[in-house]
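Memo to structure team: turn this sequence into C-alpha cells by end of day. - J.P.
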Amino acid sequence: MTKEMQMMLVPQGSLEGYIRAANQYPMLTAEEEKELAERLYYQQDLDAAKALILSHLRFVIHVARGYSGYGLPQADLIQEGNIGLMKAVRRFNPEVGVRLVSFAVHWVKAEIHEYVLRNWRIVKVATTKAQRKLFFNLRKTKQRFGWFNENEVAMVADELGVSVDDVKEMESRMTGQDMAFDLPTDDAEESYSPALYLEDKSSDFAMELETENYENQANEQLNEALSALDERSLDIIRSRWLDDDKATLQDLAAKYNISAERVRQLENNALKKLKSAVAF
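Reply from structure team:
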C-alpha cells in the first residue's frame, strides 16, 4: 500500500501525526480541482480521484471535530467521514458548477451521523428516519435550553415540526445516556458521558474552509508584495494605512523633503502594485 493510500485510512496510534500529514497536502485551486474532476468523471482516472481525496482530508478532520461531544474516538469519526468523502468524489459531476467541498460536506456528515447513531449508548435511540432527524436536532436544542419544562417541550415540538409526544419520548431516551449497559471493569465511580452538543448547523463548514484558505493565500501574497516595495514606498504605505497613528501627506512630505502631491503619487503607485499582487 502506498503512502498516499495509507493516508485515506486513519491510524489507531498517533492521531496528531495523521492530522499533521493530512494538512501537508495542499488545497486545490478551482482550476486544478475542475481538471482533476473531469479526468475522473470522463476518463475514470484513479490518480485524479486520489488527488481529490487527499487534498480534502483536512476538510473531513474539520467536520469530524464538530462531533467530539459524543465520546466516540476522533479517529473513528474521521475514518467514517473519509468514507463519505470517497463516496462524494465518486459521484461528483464537475459540470454542476460547485466546488467539491460544498458537494462533499453532505456525504461526510451523513456517514458520521450513521456512525454516531450506531454507536450511541442508548439502545435504539433512533430507529426511523424521522427519529434520527429529531435526535440530532433535539441534542442541539437541549444544549440551548437544558432540561425541558412543558412550555419548552411545546416550543421545541413546534420548532422541529413534530408532536409533543415525540419530543417527550426522544428526551426520555436521551436522559438515560449515563446508564451504560456494560459495567466498569475497575472500581472507578466516574464514568465518561458525552456532552450534550452537536456542531452548529447554522454554520457552513465548506464556506468557512474556503474562506480560511482564501484569506491565508491573500495574506501570504500581501506580505510578499509588501516586501517587494522599495523602502520609501513601504514606509509610506505603513504610515498611511497600517500604523495606528496614521501620517498625513504633509507629514511624509516633510520627512522625505518632497511635495505632498509626490507622496500621493508614490502611495497610489504602491497601492496599485499591492492590488495587482493579491488579485485572484
